[in-house]
Structures are given as C-alpha cells and as structure tokens.
Amino acid sequence: MYDPTVFENVKVAFENHVYDLDNIERKINIINRTDRMDFSIIKRDFSIEFVLSDKPAVSAEIIIEASLEELAAEILETPGKNPGCTLQLKFQKDVMDVPSECKNIELALKQIWEGDITIMQHVSFEYGHLEQNYVNTTFLRFQQKINEDNISEIEDFLASVIESLELLHHI
Questions:
Q1: Buried b (16+ CB within 10 A) or exposed e, 107-136
Q2: pTM, two decimal places
Q3: Which domain holds residue 102?
Q4: CA–CA dist 58, 35 (Å, integer)
Q5: pLDDT along the chain (171 residues), means of 10
Q6: Which of 63, 69, 94, 118 is the most buried (most CB within 10 A)?
Q7: Do the domain assignments include residue 1?
Q8: Quick check: is 47 in a domain?
Q9: Residue 97 is assigned to a structural domain of this protein
Q10: Is 133 among the domain residues?
Q11: How far apart are CA 22 and CA 122, in angstroms?
C-alpha cells in the first residue's frame, strides 16, 4: 500500500487550509499554484500564491520543498534521519522609495516572524520604465525543517501570513 511522504502530507495540509481561506472564509484569492517533481535533481516542490480579497496589490507565496536526500531518507527509513521539508515565504509588492520602503518591509516582517529566519529582498524594474515603480520580492526562509508534527501550526502560520500581507499593504 502507498504510504504518503512527509512532503505529501504537509502539502495537502497547507492546500486544505489555504483553500478554506479562499473558498469558505473568502479572505484571500488564490492566484497561482504549482506542484512539481524535478527529475533532473529529484526534488519535489509545491507553491501556492494568493492575495487578500480586498487588497490585491501585495501577494504571498508559500513554498515547500523536499530534496532527494530528504525523500530517500524517508523512503529508505534511514536510521538517525528526521526527514522533513524546507519552508519559504515570498511576498511581492511595488515600491517607489526603495531604501525607505525596503527597510520598513524588513522591520515589519521581523515583528511578525520571530525565530530562526533569513530575510532577503530583491528589487527589480522593467527596462525602459525606470521612472515607475520597482518590484520588491521578499523571501523569508525558515531554517528549521517542517514535518507532520507542524501540521497543527498551519492555521497560526497562515494568520501570520495574512497579518504580513496587511502590514505590507500599508508600506
């Protein structure tokens, strides 16, 4: 009988919670979803991107990944290994005053996301439109792996994502 991997269980739990926020609670609108198996490096990844229903200017994307090492350790039941997935958040919004707004974005996200995370921001623009808005893409990478033990924390996690979207909307 097929036994789902940690990745599959975590992915389904995230999907269920996010789709409830979209279809039942109507707090968000899902705008993209990806579920991939990368055969060149044997990696699974899943992402789901959404915006607040009433404030679509800022998007959030939840990304979970499982590497070959994680998948193999689980399937082969390697002793001493604790298989899990990496978790990353990506926020995207337009900015005009890059130094000020990027600093405010980092400060706001650090208020919400305590713990062992890395925040990285990328700023870009469309060539020929330099005088218009820049696009800020902010990545939050969580250092600790997640697994089925974290499924009960997804609801609180998503509440923090929504709080982040609200704060970023006002920056």
A1: ebbeeebeeebeeebeeeeeeeeeeeebeb
A2: 0.92
A3: 6-169
A4: 22
A5: 82 97 97 95 95 97 94 84 93 95 96 90 85 90 94 96 97 93
A6: 63
A7: no
A8: yes
A9: yes
A10: yes
A11: 28
